[in-house]
Amino acid sequence: MDSNSFRPADRDQLAQQTRELTDRRAQLLAGSYRLFYREPVHLVRGQGQYLYDADGRQYLDLYNNVASLGHCHPAVVQAVTEQMQQLNTHTRYLHERILDYTDDLLSTFPAEKDWRAVYMCTGSEANDLALRVAQAHTSGEGVIATAEAYHGTSALTSAVSPALGSGQPIAPTVRLVPAPDTYRTGIADIGTWFANQVQSAIDDLRAHNVRLSALILDPLFSSDGVLPGTPGFLAPVVDVVRRNGGLIIADEVQPGFGRTGERFWGFARHGFVPDLVTLGKPMGNGMPVSGLVGQADVMASFSDRLPYFNTFGGNPVSMAAAQAVLDTIRADNLQEHSLHVGELTRQALRDVAARHEVLGDVRGVGLYTGVELIEDADGRVPDAGLALDVVENLRRQGVLTSTAGPDGNVLKLRPPLAFSSGNVDWLAGALDASVHEAVTNRRARAGS
Which region is the signal sequence (predicted)? Predict the structure, then answer.
């Protein structure tokens, strides 16, 4: 989370207006907040895949899946405005919006199961409730997550989110396993390898008298460095968890809603049916709305004993935004668009990588791509410092993104779905120039 943050030590190098704003933040906001970039960006407007700063400069957004369709999408703006003019209240009154949306949402889930939905405002809340439901259903507390996972900021979810940093304590009932990285490990049968890692973690929990509750995973392993893998490779780990009495929680906050192109949900791409599915940021295109969808018998283990109420979760305005997102994904064929444009993007980036030995693996699916920065092609040694330099250079080229992975060396390219084939050349040219500049500057420093 700190990898490409603004550092107060750089304050004196900022332009006056930027310096004044950062000073005000320091005086008014808690120190746990972070700003992107050594020179923070002052954004004032967004449209589609573009953002605009206070000076009117246009940026290509390669990082923001909150506005999943695109910034200020007119269908979402209209839906929210119309519903706000009629009514906004909580879910303890009858209203058609939440029912109609849930009918539509559940139609995208595997038909062979009976599903139930609950709504919140954030992905953290969705994952928090999913963990509580899993504990209620299994009578266990043990959770397994990957070594650089991010699942939220509540007490429960931060305890399974090592991506928050070394200062974040991991709960004693949580075990972390390495992510299934074929590039770094060189292991062909990564599914069996990953399943073995999870089985070892389960055995360790059992040795400490902790019953397994769930494996929580992002099917794209986004924070672990964008590791989509071959479709279906997660089958062995699903079998291991279920043999040991645990549930599978699929965190679809980043891979869901058609982003992979191949399937509507990340779990569907791997051909398994999770017990619980969490939804977040992309669901409302910037409107705070999230959800937990679970198999009916699993949800009943919690809801038959405990009520759950979220004041703003499932309110009519949020449901209107969520419905507009689903409608637009279908009407504009955005799942197919993601598949096609994603393939074009990675091919262009591989062409750039062929010119720079410090660009290693280019991997991804749909509109989600990871690019490794390495010291050399032979050793595949991660180069986090170079990755941060490239991110800063990309910002100066008008492209906004960030890094991911346990070593902080993977460019995480995750644009709004409005990103088009017409944007590919901008991205590829910016990456080419940014890597060249970073490498040239490093050699100059070494020579001096």
Answer: none
- First-to-last alpha carbon distance for the chain, in angstroms, is 32
Q: How many CA atoms lie within 13 A of 110 on its CB side?
A: 17
The SS3 assignment for 10 reads helix
- For residues 79 and 100, give the distance between their C-alpha atoms in angstroms, rounded to a whole number: 14
Name the domain count of the chain. Answer: 2
Q: What is the distance between the alpha carbons of residues 265 and 250, in angstroms, rounded to a whole number?
A: 9
Instruction: Give backbone dihedrals phi and psi of 402, rounded to 5 degrees, phi first.
Output: -150, -170
* 3-state SS, residue 152: coil
22 belongs to a structural domain = no
DSSP 260: T
Res. 349 pLDDT band, cuts 50 70 90: very high
* pLDDT at 164 > cutoff 80: yes
Q: Is the pTM for the entire model greater than 0.85?
A: yes
CA distances from 41 to 17, 19, 181, 214, 266 (A): 11, 11, 33, 39, 32
**Residue ending a domain, choose from 288, 312, 331:** 331
Tens digit of each residue's pLDDT (9 = 90 or more) over 127-149? 999 999 999 999 999 999 999 99
Looking at the structure, tell me whether residues 97 and 68 fall in a common domain.
Answer: no
Same domain for 229 and 284, yes or no, is yes
For residue 366, give its domain range: 41-72+333-447
Residue 30 lies in a domain: no
